[in-house]
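Subject: Sanity check before I submit

Could someone independently write out the structure tokens for this chain? I want to compare against mine line by line before I put it in a report. The sequence has 670 residues.
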Amino acid sequence: MAALHELITTLSAPWVVLSPRSGQLTGTGAEGVYAQDRRILSRLLVTIDDREPLPVHVDESPRGGSPHPLGVTVFGAVVEGLGDGGHDPTVRLRRTRTVDGAGLIERVTLVNTSHRTVDCTLKVALGTDLAGTAEVRSEAAASLPALDPIADGATLHWENAAGTRVSALCDPEPSLTADDGVQWQLQVEPGDEATVTLRISAAFPPASGFEIKPPEQRPTYDEIAVSCDDSRVERWIRRSLDDVAALQLGTGRERYLGAGPPWYLTLFGRDSLISAGMLIPVDPELATGTLRALAERQGTKVDIDAAEQPGKIPHELRAEVADHGNGLVLPAAYYGTHDATQLWITTLHKAWRWGMPTDEVRALLPNLQRALTWIKEYADPDGDGFLEYIDESGHGLANQGWKDSRDSVQWPDGTLATAPIALCEVQGYAYAAALAGAELLTAFGLDGADEWRAWAADLKTRFREKFWVDGYPAIALDGDKRPVAGPSSNLGHLLGTGLLDPDEEAAVATLLGDKQLDSGFGLRTLTTEMSGFNPLGYHTGSVWPHDTAMAVQGLYAARQATVATTYARGLVEAAESFGYRLPELYGGAGVGEESSPTPYPLSCRPQAWAAASAIAVVIAALGIEPNVPAGTLDITPAGDFPWRSLRLDGVRVGERTLTVEYTDGNLTLS
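---
Independent answer below. Compare away.
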């Protein structure tokens, strides 16, 4: 399959186009037009007189000097063999690709700057298999036949047995329509140009599962502005916010972030919550929408097949069952996550602290109580006081933390840990959720707060007794309750939760600052000292921007600013290497081994929590901690601040919008 990192992404969720730099869709690998968990087109191939134009340029930047809005990419090519003779190209092809919530518009323009009239045949080959995204990713789609088109004047239609119908409306009407596409006879005078337009739309049958729709209104974040002495930070923030806007989806009046195209462009518990939580300072309504959308689908029953339990927040919601291959078959509503429920609680608490309206918080309190009940009654099936998981269905995720690949929890010799598994960060999230839940219960006059504070205190004691090994917390306890040794990035998620005392946080910070975990471009998921370390291992040595950003947040909260600042600067270095659009993950080879981060071939780009990480890092460095219900706002910039000067406009605290500036040690708030 063609590597995702090599493909150009044109995105306005739920529609996305992935193509090579030529703009051509050849029907191979992951190339295609996608919407609502399905590949809408697999071929969109332009030729002139049966020859492909020579690609010379692509503009995928929605800003940064480009006039193009979100969801637009412009491809440039030269057409050889036409126009004037000589070395200089005189006939060009401009291809403007626009996606929005309703579909794709592809404008193909032949530009004649020669001194002679150009007569040629412009052909657009079209085709689709209407494969599901899971089929494309597992490469099962390679064996699917192309569907036959039905011509109707200027429109081509394709339809599958399930009732999904794709339409391609051509303007002007083509001079010839065939099974493999459409063509026009063009005559373009010197100094003139000619354009043909294809409008691609799709109609979907009623979803058996979750409906993946665009938001009713997509934000632009034009009110957010950053000024920094390191101009790379400004570019990183701007590009990230543009990607956040493009990734947004909606359900009713709620907005949430799709995790990433093309595989994960839907509502995810963990991913959508972490991303929305990071963005609360600039878009609190996104967190509110995410909380509500997930609360509406909170578990109500025990269903082993779907890993559903009462009070549990779902892992992912799709339009239909997804067969990912190798025995991984997930129902449309899948609950196989052991951390999303705690993250839902802590995101609600953070939103409340930042000023979520009281009546909106109160409306979610029944969901809060059910989520807390899940932690106590279902998350700890063996009753040992820790939250552990095991896939009981036989076709779900073997690991159900954020590192959900099969080999993500392993011993130093590479042996995989056996289930049930109690992940360290899941305990940290649970501790924070218990205290956050207790604070909310108290604030709204509900019972149970003291019980949850006591529960958290007991967990803290048990964690210290069972998880610590060789001076750091193990990644997990295995099925025999043994601490699985080997430093990992999971440690960074414990910082700031309150589960560790200051001396323990300092010990973790020291380990995170070691070169075995610090690649120079971000935090490695696994130490280089492990036999299973692989710099391009999905969860066994690669770098994930959100993972690094969460460690940065925790390190600054724990007053471990030097290590935090090192990682913040590493993310800026990585962002520059990726055109300020950080991918889902990248290689964990270090500075000195590589001059820039190595792309991970199947990494989503853009991706929600990678994009959200830019705001998270800046807010953490500034140390902005509001408590709107208590009427307080604390701003404590890091002692070892990453930049000499930073100004952030558009910080939203309650009903106020603030500008925070920190220059040469002086803080200004307006």
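---
OP: Matches mine. For the report I'm noting this point. The domain at 4-203 is CATH 2.70.98.40 (Beta-galactosidase; Chain A, domain 5).
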